[in-house]
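Give me the fold.
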Amino acid sequence: MDTTVAIDCMGGDHGPHVTVPAALKFLKSTSDVDIVLVGLRDAIEAELKARGAKAGPRLRVHHASEVVSMDESPALALRNKKDSSIRVAVDLVKSGEAHACVSAGNTGALMAISRFVLKMLPGIDRPAIISALPTVRGSTYVLDLGANVDCAPEHLLQFGIMGATLVTAVEHKDRPTVGLLNIGEEDIKGNEVVKKAAELLRASGLNFIGNIEGDGIYKGEADVVVCDGFVGNVMLKASEGIVQMVRSFIREEFMRSPLTKLASVIVMPVLYAFRKRLDPRRFNGATLLGLKGIVVKSHGSADAFGFERAIERATEEVKNEVLHRLMLRFGSNEAAEAASS
C-alpha cells in the first residue's frame, strides 16, 4: 500500500513557493508515496501551473480556506481557525486519509492542533520534538527541542524510551545508546529532576550510558540525547548560530585579499564538502513524537531542498512503523505495571 503524506502548503516563511516544488521533486524520486497539498486552492494551483504540473493520481489538492500566521497565538489558531491548512492536514491524518503530515508553519499552533486532534498515545504524557543533529560519527537524535519547558523525571524517561524506539526503527539499531544531557558526567551533577531522571533511565532497560555534556552531542557519544525542551531549544538555536558564524568567518577570510581568493579556488572541493556536512537542510524535519499520528515540523525558513527532506523524514517513519513500535513499547510497559500491581 502506498504511503500518503498531507502537506500544509501555506506554512513557513515562503508558503507554496517552497512546499509545492518540494512536493513535486519528492514525487519524482519515489514511486510509492502519494501527496495531498493542503491550503488555498488558487495559490497551490497557480504554483503547480507555473511549474508545468497538475493534480493527478498521486497528487491532489485539498482546499483549506484559512491560514495560520507564524506569529499567531496557538490557542486562537486552535479555537478560531478550524479550516486552516494546518488543521485540515492534521485532520487528514486523524481520518486515515493520510499517514503523516508535514508543516513548516507556526510550531506552537502545530503542536496544539496536533495534540488536540490526534491525542496522545497511551502511556505517554507529553509529546516531544525530536530531530537528528550532525556529529563526527554521523548523527544524534535529541529530544525535547522545545515542546516542554518544564519536565518531571518521568517525562524525561518517556522521552528516552520514545527516542530509542524511533532510532531503532529508522536507523535500524537494535539497542541505541541513550544519554542524559547534563552539566557534567558525574552522577552528583545536575538538578534534582535530572538526577532522578538518571535513576529512572538506568533502571529502564534502555542502553543508558549516563550523563553527557553539551559537547558530547557533537562527538556522537550517544544515539539519543534526552533533555527538557528549554535546554534543548537553547542548545539547538545556539548550534545553528555557531554554524552560521563559522561559515561567515570562512567566507570573510577567503575574501580578504586576491591571494586568499585564489586559495579559495584551490580548496573549493574541501569547502564544498565541509559546507555539505554542516548543511542544516540535510537534517530538516523534527517529529512531534508521542501523538497518535506522525507529524513532522519543517524549519520555517527551509527552502525546497530542506522541505523535501522533511517529507522524506515523514515517509521513513511511516514505512518503518514508528507509530506501531511506540504503541507496542508503551503498551507492554502498561501491561507489566498492571501485572505487578
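The first strand starts at residue 3 and ends at 8.
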